[in-house]
Structures are given as structure tokens and as C-alpha cells.
Amino acid sequence: MKVTVVTPSFNQGKYIKRTIDSVLSQGIQDLEYIVMDGGSTDETLDILKTYKNQIIWRSERDKGQTDAVNKGLRLATGEVIGWLNSDDIYYPGAVSKVMKIFEDHPEINVVYGNANHIREDDSVIEEYYTEDFNYERLKEVCFICQPALFFRKTMVEKYGYLDEKLQYCMDYDYWLRLGKYENFYRLNELLAGSRLYDDNKTLGFRRKVHEEMLVMQKKNLGKADKKWIYNLAHVIVDEMGIPREKAGKTNPEFAHKLAKVSCREFLKIYKYIPCSEWKLIMSWYKYE
Known about the structure:
Layout: E1 3-9, H1 16-24, E2 31-37, H2 44-49, E3 56-59, H3 65-75, E4 80-83, E5 89-90, H4 94-104, E6 110-118, E7 124-127, H5 135-140, E8 149-152, H6 154-159, H7 170-179, E9 185-195, H8 201-204, H9 206-221, H10 226-239, E10 245-246, E11 249-250, H11 252-269, H12 275-283
Parallel strand pairs: 1-2, 1-4, 2-3, 6-9
Antiparallel strand pairs: 4-8, 5-9, 6-7, 6-8, 10-11
């Protein structure tokens, strides 16, 4: 069974060699590796050239990460698809473990495993929070780490490509689209490392990520989950520089500002504040 790994890239010369090596060292005989570069101006192209025919790569201007992944999906000829960003890594043996599940269970179309958040030097920050698959729970929490998920190419043929209107949560959007009809298989094995650093999209654009998350949830679910509204409110107040705690206790200034911002965001997104949430929000004003 052939597997295709797609890597979108733009000016990730600092990390991309580690990403590529983590794929090529998997020991998979029938492996197709596609790197879609957005016209990098750093050392990325020089690195790609050193791999010669070990990888398929193109470098051209694109519309962003989502567009780059979709271009790779259109080129992919493997029966199974993995998507690994140019600053992330697979751990040794990860792809073989995934492929065995697909080979042994033809009824399974999506497999995901465990992952770590890693630093710039590959050291582990923490485990990525992961749960057994439950679609209702997935609506509330994105417990699937993007580089640790693989799917059959038939999923693209059946459900389409990534939504190119999304630039931050296109992966979560895709999981929700597939999960509505497919039962994901959780492989309880460590598969990937997802890198976190100040300049990457996850940490560098926290507010935009959360705002897009709400738009995406409304599109898929008809209504954004209230937990994501609170998450956005926390990000907004964090960006104001107000500490959450003072002297080991909840900072009243933070609690009061969070209440105000939460009300505003509920009105903006729901057009009203649910009674249960109003009681919770008002309780935050009790902090003195």
C-alpha cells in the first residue's frame, strides 16, 4: 500500500531538513513525498535540491498554507495521505504503525495517534492532549494533533479538499467534516512532534486563530461552541497584558475584564447571552 506525505512550506529553512529526514527515515518502501513550497527566499530551495529524486517538490507562489496542501493532495498518488508541516516531525516507525492499521482494517478511513508539542531544538514541551474518538466531543475540543492524523485518499474524493477560505484552523475544519460521517481510529502510539515557537501560526496569531475557529464552527455546526467563545475572550484579555493571578489568587481586574469581553463576544456571535452563561459571567464580578 502506497503512502503520500504532503508538506507545505514557506521560508522554513531552519526546520525543513529535520522534517524531510523524519519522513525519509520511516523505512517505508512505497513512499511518495511531496513538498509544496510557496516561493521561499531563504535556504529552503538549496535544501530541497540536495534530496534529488527522493522527494517531489515545487516552488511557486501560492495563496497560503491551505492552498499548498491542496496542491499536494491533487498531485498525490498514494492510497493513504499524511500531512506534515515544514516545521513538524514524525517519530521513528510512526508511518509503519499507521499503515498496518489501514492494511489490517479496510473499513477504517481515518487514523490518528498521539503527539508532542516540541521546542525549536526538538525537545518536548508537553504531550498534545488527545482523546478516544467521539464526534460530539470533537465539536468542543480539537483533541487531534494535525501531523498525527492520516486518511485514505478516497476521503478527498468523497468530501473534497481543505477550505481555502481558512488559514489557521483548516485542519480542525477538515476533521469535523470527515468526522460527521467517518469513525476515526485512535492509534494509542506517539507519532509526531508539533513545533511551537513565537513566530509560528499557532502562537504568533492566537487571536486570529480563535476568531477563525468561531467562523469555522458556525459553518460546520450551525453555531459556535460556547467554550470557543470563552477561549477567544481569554486570548483578548491576555493580549491586554492583564495578569490572570496576583499573589497566587485570581486577579480581580482580569476577572472583571474577562466578564466584559465575554459578554461582548457572546452578543457579537450569538446575538444574545444564554441565561446559564450570564450567571457564570456575572459571578466573575464577585472577585475583589
